[in-house]
Amino acid sequence: MFMTIDQEYVVATYLVHGHHNFYKKAQEIAVGLTVGTWTDLPKAKKEQMIPHLGKVIEVKVLKHKSDESPKALLLIGYPLVNMNPDIPSILTTVFGKLSMDGQIKLIDLQLPDSLLSKFPGPRFGIDGIRRMIGVHNRPLLMSIFKQCIGLPLHELEKEYQNQVDGQVDLVKDDEIFFRDDYAPALKRIAAFEKYNQQKQENTKKRVLYAVNLTGPVTQLVEQAKQLSNAGASCLLLNVVPYGFDVLHRIAADPDVNIPIIAHPAFTGSFYPSPYYGLSAPLLIGKLMRLSGADIVLFPSPYGSVAMPKKEALELANLLQSTNSIHRPAFPTPSAGIHPGLVPTIIRDFGDNIIINAGGGIHGHPQGTTAGGKAFMDAIQATNSGQTLAQAADNSAELRSAIDKWGAL
Protein backbone atom coordinates (compact mmCIF):
# COMPACT_ATOMS: atom_id res chain seq x y z
CA MET A 1 0.00 0.00 0.00
CA PHE A 2 2.23 2.83 -1.28
CA MET A 3 1.58 6.35 -2.55
CA THR A 4 3.77 9.24 -3.63
CA ILE A 5 4.22 11.88 -0.94
CA ASP A 6 2.27 14.96 -1.99
CA GLN A 7 3.72 18.40 -1.20
CA GLU A 8 0.34 19.38 0.19
CA TYR A 9 0.45 16.80 2.97
CA VAL A 10 1.99 16.56 6.42
CA VAL A 11 3.35 13.00 6.67
CA ALA A 12 3.34 11.40 10.10
CA THR A 13 5.38 8.29 10.93
CA TYR A 14 4.01 6.05 13.68
CA LEU A 15 5.48 3.03 15.44
CA VAL A 16 2.60 0.65 16.21
CA HIS A 17 2.80 -2.46 18.40
CA GLY A 18 0.16 -5.16 18.69
CA HIS A 19 -1.58 -7.95 16.85
CA HIS A 20 -3.08 -5.79 14.12
CA ASN A 21 -3.71 -6.01 10.43
CA PHE A 22 -1.32 -3.09 10.01
CA TYR A 23 -2.58 -2.18 6.53
CA LYS A 24 -6.13 -2.00 7.82
CA LYS A 25 -4.96 -0.07 10.89
CA ALA A 26 -3.22 2.49 8.69
CA GLN A 27 -6.32 2.99 6.58
CA GLU A 28 -8.47 3.40 9.69
CA ILE A 29 -6.11 6.10 10.98
CA ALA A 30 -5.96 7.92 7.66
CA VAL A 31 -9.76 8.09 7.46
CA GLY A 32 -10.53 8.42 11.16
CA LEU A 33 -8.27 11.42 11.74
CA THR A 34 -9.49 13.28 8.66
CA VAL A 35 -13.00 12.77 7.25
CA GLY A 36 -14.10 10.35 9.97
CA THR A 37 -15.85 7.83 7.70
CA TRP A 38 -15.65 6.93 4.03
CA THR A 39 -17.22 3.71 2.80
CA ASP A 40 -20.77 4.69 3.76
CA LEU A 41 -20.62 8.17 2.25
CA PRO A 42 -22.67 8.87 -0.90
CA LYS A 43 -20.72 9.63 -4.07
CA ALA A 44 -21.39 13.36 -3.99
CA LYS A 45 -20.21 13.59 -0.40
CA LYS A 46 -17.06 11.64 -1.23
CA GLU A 47 -16.19 14.05 -4.02
CA GLN A 48 -16.63 16.92 -1.60
CA MET A 49 -14.41 15.28 1.04
CA ILE A 50 -11.60 13.97 -1.19
CA PRO A 51 -9.38 17.06 -0.61
CA HIS A 52 -9.62 16.41 3.14
CA LEU A 53 -9.04 12.64 3.12
CA GLY A 54 -5.86 11.23 4.64
CA LYS A 55 -3.52 9.01 2.61
CA VAL A 56 -1.67 5.85 3.55
CA ILE A 57 1.85 6.46 2.24
CA GLU A 58 3.61 3.30 3.42
CA VAL A 59 3.23 0.37 5.79
CA LYS A 60 6.47 -1.29 6.84
CA VAL A 61 6.13 -4.38 9.02
CA LEU A 62 9.22 -4.72 11.22
CA LYS A 63 11.02 -7.80 12.44
CA HIS A 64 10.37 -8.71 16.05
CA LYS A 65 11.54 -11.31 18.51
CA SER A 66 9.36 -14.31 19.26
CA ASP A 67 8.55 -13.00 22.74
CA GLU A 68 7.62 -9.54 21.42
CA SER A 69 4.36 -8.35 19.93
CA PRO A 70 4.35 -7.53 16.20
CA LYS A 71 5.22 -3.97 15.21
CA ALA A 72 5.18 -1.77 12.13
CA LEU A 73 5.92 1.73 10.89
CA LEU A 74 2.93 3.48 9.37
CA LEU A 75 3.40 6.60 7.21
CA ILE A 76 0.20 8.59 6.76
CA GLY A 77 -0.35 11.87 4.96
CA TYR A 78 -2.71 14.57 6.23
CA PRO A 79 -3.89 17.33 3.87
CA LEU A 80 -2.65 20.80 4.74
CA VAL A 81 -6.15 22.11 4.11
CA ASN A 82 -7.24 20.37 7.34
CA MET A 83 -4.98 22.32 9.69
CA ASN A 84 -3.63 25.72 10.65
CA PRO A 85 0.09 26.56 10.41
CA ASP A 86 0.83 25.99 14.07
CA ILE A 87 2.07 23.09 16.21
CA PRO A 88 -1.14 22.65 18.27
CA SER A 89 -3.19 22.24 15.09
CA ILE A 90 -0.72 19.79 13.55
CA LEU A 91 -0.31 17.65 16.67
CA THR A 92 -4.04 17.53 17.31
CA THR A 93 -4.63 16.47 13.71
CA VAL A 94 -2.02 13.72 13.52
CA PHE A 95 -1.95 12.49 17.12
CA GLY A 96 -4.83 13.94 19.11
CA LYS A 97 -7.24 11.13 19.87
CA LEU A 98 -4.85 8.62 18.27
CA SER A 99 -2.45 9.09 21.20
CA MET A 100 -5.03 7.29 23.37
CA ASP A 101 -5.48 4.36 20.98
CA GLY A 102 -3.18 1.69 22.42
CA GLN A 103 0.50 1.16 21.76
CA ILE A 104 1.25 3.80 19.14
CA LYS A 105 4.08 6.33 19.13
CA LEU A 106 4.56 9.36 16.89
CA ILE A 107 8.11 9.03 15.55
CA ASP A 108 8.44 11.82 13.00
CA LEU A 109 6.67 14.52 11.02
CA GLN A 110 7.58 15.59 7.50
CA LEU A 111 6.32 19.07 6.64
CA PRO A 112 6.33 20.45 3.09
CA ASP A 113 8.25 23.67 2.47
CA SER A 114 5.00 25.57 2.04
CA LEU A 115 4.20 24.83 5.69
CA LEU A 116 7.75 25.02 7.05
CA SER A 117 7.95 28.60 5.81
CA LYS A 118 5.09 29.55 8.14
CA PHE A 119 7.26 28.83 11.20
CA PRO A 120 9.94 31.23 12.44
CA GLY A 121 12.80 28.81 13.14
CA PRO A 122 15.86 30.15 14.99
CA ARG A 123 16.38 33.88 14.53
CA PHE A 124 20.09 33.65 15.34
CA GLY A 125 20.99 29.97 15.26
CA ILE A 126 24.52 28.66 15.58
CA ASP A 127 26.29 31.26 13.44
CA GLY A 128 24.36 34.18 14.89
CA ILE A 129 25.11 33.24 18.48
CA ARG A 130 28.76 32.67 17.68
CA ARG A 131 28.92 36.17 16.18
CA MET A 132 27.25 37.66 19.25
CA ILE A 133 29.71 35.99 21.62
CA GLY A 134 32.72 36.31 19.34
CA VAL A 135 33.80 32.65 19.55
CA HIS A 136 34.00 30.58 16.36
CA ASN A 137 36.52 27.79 16.82
CA ARG A 138 35.35 25.70 19.75
CA PRO A 139 32.25 24.46 21.60
CA LEU A 140 30.64 27.09 23.80
CA LEU A 141 30.35 26.69 27.56
CA MET A 142 27.19 27.50 29.52
CA SER A 143 26.74 27.59 33.28
CA ILE A 144 23.44 26.97 35.08
CA PHE A 145 22.50 29.41 37.82
CA LYS A 146 22.07 27.01 40.75
CA GLN A 147 20.93 27.87 44.29
CA CYS A 148 19.08 30.92 43.06
CA ILE A 149 15.71 30.50 44.79
CA GLY A 150 15.22 32.77 47.80
CA LEU A 151 18.54 34.59 47.47
CA PRO A 152 18.78 38.40 47.43
CA LEU A 153 20.16 40.22 44.41
CA HIS A 154 23.56 41.02 45.91
CA GLU A 155 24.25 37.33 46.52
CA LEU A 156 23.17 36.43 42.99
CA GLU A 157 25.41 39.19 41.61
CA LYS A 158 28.40 37.66 43.34
CA GLU A 159 27.55 34.19 42.11
CA TYR A 160 27.03 35.53 38.59
CA GLN A 161 30.48 37.13 38.64
CA ASN A 162 32.02 33.88 39.83
CA GLN A 163 30.51 32.07 36.84
CA VAL A 164 31.60 34.68 34.30
CA ASP A 165 35.08 34.85 35.83
CA GLY A 166 35.29 31.13 35.13
CA GLN A 167 35.33 31.99 31.39
CA VAL A 168 31.88 30.66 30.55
CA ASP A 169 30.18 31.98 27.41
CA LEU A 170 26.60 31.87 28.66
CA VAL A 171 24.86 31.79 32.03
CA LYS A 172 21.25 30.65 32.28
CA ASP A 173 18.72 30.79 35.07
CA ASP A 174 17.67 27.53 36.63
CA GLU A 175 14.42 26.46 34.99
CA ILE A 176 12.67 26.31 38.39
CA PHE A 177 13.41 29.97 39.13
CA PHE A 178 9.82 31.25 39.01
CA ARG A 179 9.37 33.23 42.24
CA ASP A 180 11.90 36.04 42.00
CA ASP A 181 10.56 38.21 44.84
CA TYR A 182 14.06 38.77 46.24
CA ALA A 183 15.73 39.44 42.89
CA PRO A 184 13.20 40.45 40.18
CA ALA A 185 14.09 39.65 36.58
CA LEU A 186 14.46 43.29 35.51
CA LYS A 187 16.89 43.97 38.35
CA ARG A 188 18.87 40.83 37.56
CA ILE A 189 19.13 41.86 33.93
CA ALA A 190 20.36 45.35 34.82
CA ALA A 191 22.99 44.03 37.21
CA PHE A 192 24.23 41.10 35.17
CA GLU A 193 24.31 42.85 31.81
CA LYS A 194 26.30 45.71 33.38
CA TYR A 195 28.88 43.16 34.48
CA ASN A 196 28.78 41.53 31.03
CA GLN A 197 29.54 44.88 29.42
CA GLN A 198 32.50 45.46 31.72
CA LYS A 199 33.78 41.98 30.96
CA GLN A 200 33.40 42.53 27.22
CA GLU A 201 35.37 45.77 27.37
CA ASN A 202 38.23 43.94 29.08
CA THR A 203 38.22 40.66 27.15
CA LYS A 204 36.51 41.56 23.81
CA LYS A 205 34.23 38.57 24.38
CA ARG A 206 30.54 38.85 25.19
CA VAL A 207 28.69 36.71 27.72
CA LEU A 208 24.96 36.05 27.33
CA TYR A 209 22.62 35.81 30.32
CA ALA A 210 19.44 33.80 29.74
CA VAL A 211 16.68 35.04 32.01
CA ASN A 212 13.84 32.64 32.78
CA LEU A 213 10.61 33.69 31.07
CA THR A 214 7.67 33.02 33.39
CA GLY A 215 4.11 34.10 34.09
CA PRO A 216 0.59 33.53 32.76
CA VAL A 217 0.73 32.16 29.22
CA THR A 218 -1.39 35.06 27.92
CA GLN A 219 1.29 37.49 29.09
CA LEU A 220 4.46 35.72 27.97
CA VAL A 221 4.87 37.50 24.64
CA GLU A 222 4.57 40.91 26.30
CA GLN A 223 6.86 39.72 29.09
CA ALA A 224 9.44 38.66 26.49
CA LYS A 225 9.23 42.09 24.85
CA GLN A 226 9.68 43.80 28.20
CA LEU A 227 12.75 41.74 29.07
CA SER A 228 14.23 42.29 25.62
CA ASN A 229 13.64 46.04 25.81
CA ALA A 230 15.22 46.08 29.27
CA GLY A 231 18.49 44.82 27.79
CA ALA A 232 18.25 41.06 28.27
CA SER A 233 20.72 39.22 26.05
CA CYS A 234 18.89 35.87 25.99
CA LEU A 235 15.66 34.19 27.11
CA LEU A 236 15.04 30.78 28.68
CA LEU A 237 11.66 29.13 28.11
CA ASN A 238 10.29 25.85 29.48
CA VAL A 239 8.58 25.18 26.18
CA VAL A 240 6.41 22.11 26.70
CA PRO A 241 4.60 23.24 29.88
CA TYR A 242 3.75 26.56 28.21
CA GLY A 243 3.23 25.20 24.70
CA PHE A 244 5.05 25.20 21.37
CA ASP A 245 2.84 27.97 20.05
CA VAL A 246 4.05 30.30 22.79
CA LEU A 247 7.63 29.76 21.60
CA HIS A 248 6.45 30.30 18.01
CA ARG A 249 4.80 33.65 18.82
CA ILE A 250 7.76 34.92 20.87
CA ALA A 251 10.31 33.91 18.26
CA ALA A 252 8.26 35.47 15.47
CA ASP A 253 7.79 38.80 17.26
CA PRO A 254 10.12 41.46 15.78
CA ASP A 255 10.36 43.20 19.15
CA VAL A 256 11.98 40.15 20.76
CA ASN A 257 15.34 40.40 19.06
CA ILE A 258 17.40 38.11 21.31
CA PRO A 259 18.16 34.37 21.24
CA ILE A 260 15.84 31.88 22.92
CA ILE A 261 16.96 28.80 24.86
CA ALA A 262 14.44 25.95 24.93
CA HIS A 263 14.52 23.87 28.11
CA PRO A 264 13.30 20.24 27.95
CA ALA A 265 11.49 20.34 31.31
CA PHE A 266 8.46 18.02 31.30
CA THR A 267 9.35 16.37 27.97
CA GLY A 268 10.16 13.17 29.86
CA SER A 269 6.40 12.73 30.19
CA PHE A 270 6.24 12.11 26.43
CA TYR A 271 9.33 10.48 24.91
CA PRO A 272 10.93 7.67 27.01
CA SER A 273 8.39 4.90 26.34
CA PRO A 274 8.97 2.76 23.22
CA TYR A 275 5.20 2.30 22.92
CA TYR A 276 3.61 5.69 23.61
CA GLY A 277 4.12 9.43 23.22
CA LEU A 278 6.43 11.25 20.81
CA SER A 279 10.02 10.45 19.92
CA ALA A 280 12.68 12.63 21.54
CA PRO A 281 14.20 13.73 18.19
CA LEU A 282 10.80 14.98 17.06
CA LEU A 283 9.68 16.52 20.34
CA ILE A 284 12.92 18.14 21.51
CA GLY A 285 14.70 18.42 18.17
CA LYS A 286 12.53 19.12 15.17
CA LEU A 287 9.59 20.87 16.88
CA MET A 288 11.78 23.10 19.10
CA ARG A 289 13.81 24.31 16.14
CA LEU A 290 10.76 24.76 13.97
CA SER A 291 9.07 26.89 16.63
CA GLY A 292 12.03 29.24 16.99
CA ALA A 293 14.55 27.98 19.57
CA ASP A 294 18.14 29.06 18.93
CA ILE A 295 19.57 26.79 21.63
CA VAL A 296 17.98 23.50 22.67
CA LEU A 297 18.85 21.61 25.84
CA PHE A 298 18.42 17.83 26.00
CA PRO A 299 19.69 15.00 28.23
CA SER A 300 23.14 13.79 27.22
CA PRO A 301 23.85 10.05 26.85
CA TYR A 302 26.27 10.16 29.79
CA GLY A 303 24.77 12.09 32.67
CA SER A 304 22.26 11.82 35.48
CA VAL A 305 19.12 11.47 33.31
CA ALA A 306 20.80 9.92 30.27
CA MET A 307 19.06 9.71 26.91
CA PRO A 308 19.95 6.73 24.68
CA LYS A 309 22.92 7.76 22.56
CA LYS A 310 21.27 6.97 19.23
CA GLU A 311 18.29 9.22 20.06
CA ALA A 312 20.52 12.02 21.37
CA LEU A 313 22.65 12.02 18.22
CA GLU A 314 19.60 11.98 15.96
CA LEU A 315 18.13 14.85 17.96
CA ALA A 316 21.33 16.89 17.63
CA ASN A 317 21.46 16.18 13.90
CA LEU A 318 17.91 17.47 13.43
CA LEU A 319 18.88 20.69 15.20
CA GLN A 320 22.04 21.19 13.16
CA SER A 321 20.92 20.00 9.73
CA THR A 322 20.82 22.57 6.96
CA ASN A 323 17.80 23.42 4.89
CA SER A 324 16.73 26.32 2.72
CA ILE A 325 14.26 27.73 5.26
CA HIS A 326 15.52 27.60 8.86
CA ARG A 327 18.89 28.24 10.47
CA PRO A 328 20.53 25.43 12.47
CA ALA A 329 20.02 25.54 16.25
CA PHE A 330 22.67 24.86 18.89
CA PRO A 331 22.47 21.33 20.39
CA THR A 332 23.16 21.43 24.11
CA PRO A 333 23.63 18.01 25.77
CA SER A 334 23.00 18.47 29.48
CA ALA A 335 22.49 16.89 32.91
CA GLY A 336 25.33 15.47 34.98
CA ILE A 337 28.07 17.00 32.82
CA HIS A 338 31.57 17.41 34.32
CA PRO A 339 34.95 18.30 32.77
CA GLY A 340 35.99 14.65 32.44
CA LEU A 341 33.19 14.15 29.88
CA VAL A 342 34.31 16.94 27.54
CA PRO A 343 36.41 14.83 25.10
CA THR A 344 33.60 12.27 24.76
CA ILE A 345 30.94 14.93 24.19
CA ILE A 346 33.02 16.64 21.49
CA ARG A 347 33.88 13.30 19.88
CA ASP A 348 30.23 12.31 19.68
CA PHE A 349 28.55 15.65 18.95
CA GLY A 350 31.27 17.72 17.26
CA ASP A 351 32.35 21.31 17.84
CA ASN A 352 29.05 23.04 17.07
CA ILE A 353 27.54 22.40 20.48
CA ILE A 354 27.12 24.12 23.83
CA ILE A 355 28.45 22.25 26.84
CA ASN A 356 26.06 22.95 29.69
CA ALA A 357 26.89 22.32 33.35
CA GLY A 358 25.50 23.08 36.80
CA GLY A 359 26.94 20.91 39.53
CA GLY A 360 30.00 20.22 37.35
CA ILE A 361 30.88 23.91 37.69
CA HIS A 362 29.51 24.89 41.10
CA GLY A 363 30.59 21.65 42.76
CA HIS A 364 34.28 22.08 41.94
CA PRO A 365 36.46 21.69 45.06
CA GLN A 366 37.89 25.19 44.56
CA GLY A 367 34.56 26.83 43.80
CA THR A 368 32.54 28.07 40.86
CA THR A 369 35.21 30.12 39.09
CA ALA A 370 37.63 27.20 39.18
CA GLY A 371 34.84 24.94 37.91
CA GLY A 372 34.35 27.08 34.83
CA LYS A 373 38.08 27.24 34.17
CA ALA A 374 38.37 23.45 34.47
CA PHE A 375 35.76 23.07 31.73
CA MET A 376 37.41 25.64 29.51
CA ASP A 377 40.81 24.00 29.93
CA ALA A 378 39.24 20.65 29.02
CA ILE A 379 37.62 22.16 25.90
CA GLN A 380 40.83 23.83 24.75
CA ALA A 381 42.87 20.68 25.42
CA THR A 382 40.48 18.52 23.39
CA ASN A 383 40.46 20.98 20.51
CA SER A 384 44.27 21.07 20.44
CA GLY A 385 44.60 17.28 20.47
CA GLN A 386 45.78 16.94 24.06
CA THR A 387 44.49 14.36 26.50
CA LEU A 388 42.91 15.57 29.71
CA ALA A 389 45.76 14.01 31.66
CA GLN A 390 48.26 16.07 29.67
CA ALA A 391 46.25 19.26 30.11
CA ALA A 392 45.82 18.63 33.83
CA ASP A 393 49.59 18.84 34.29
CA ASN A 394 49.26 22.57 33.57
CA SER A 395 45.80 23.16 35.07
CA ALA A 396 45.26 22.70 38.78
CA GLU A 397 41.55 23.32 38.24
CA LEU A 398 41.22 20.52 35.70
CA ARG A 399 43.29 18.19 37.86
CA SER A 400 40.97 18.76 40.83
CA ALA A 401 37.90 18.16 38.65
CA ILE A 402 39.27 14.87 37.34
CA ASP A 403 40.23 13.79 40.84
CA LYS A 404 36.64 14.40 41.96
CA TRP A 405 34.58 13.16 39.01
CA GLY A 406 36.98 11.09 36.94
CA ALA A 407 37.22 11.11 33.15
CA LEU A 408 35.34 9.10 30.54
Rounded to an integer in angstroms, the radius of gyration calculated over CA atoms is 23 Å
> Overall 3D geometry?
globular
User: Number of helical segments?
Assistant: 17
Strand order of the largest sheet: 11-10-9-8-7-6-5-12
As a percent range, the share of strand residues is 15-25%
Q: Secondary-structure element order, as H and E?
A: EHHEEHEHHEHEHEHEHHEHEHEHEHHHH
Low-confidence parts lasting 5 or more residues at pLDDT below 50? Answer: 1-6
What layout of secondary structure does this protein have?
Layout: E1 9-17, H1 22-32, H2 43-49, E2 55-62, E3 71-79, H3 87-95, E4 104-110, H4 113-116, H5 125-133, E5 140-145, H6 153-165, E6 170-173, H7 185-203, E7 208-212, H8 220-229, E8 234-238, H9 239-242, H10 244-252, E9 260-263, H11 280-291, E10 295-299, H12 309-320, E11 330-334, H13 342-349, E12 354-357, H14 359-362, H15 368-383, H16 388-392, H17 396-405
Helix pairs in contact: 6-7, 6-15, 10-11, 11-12, 15-17
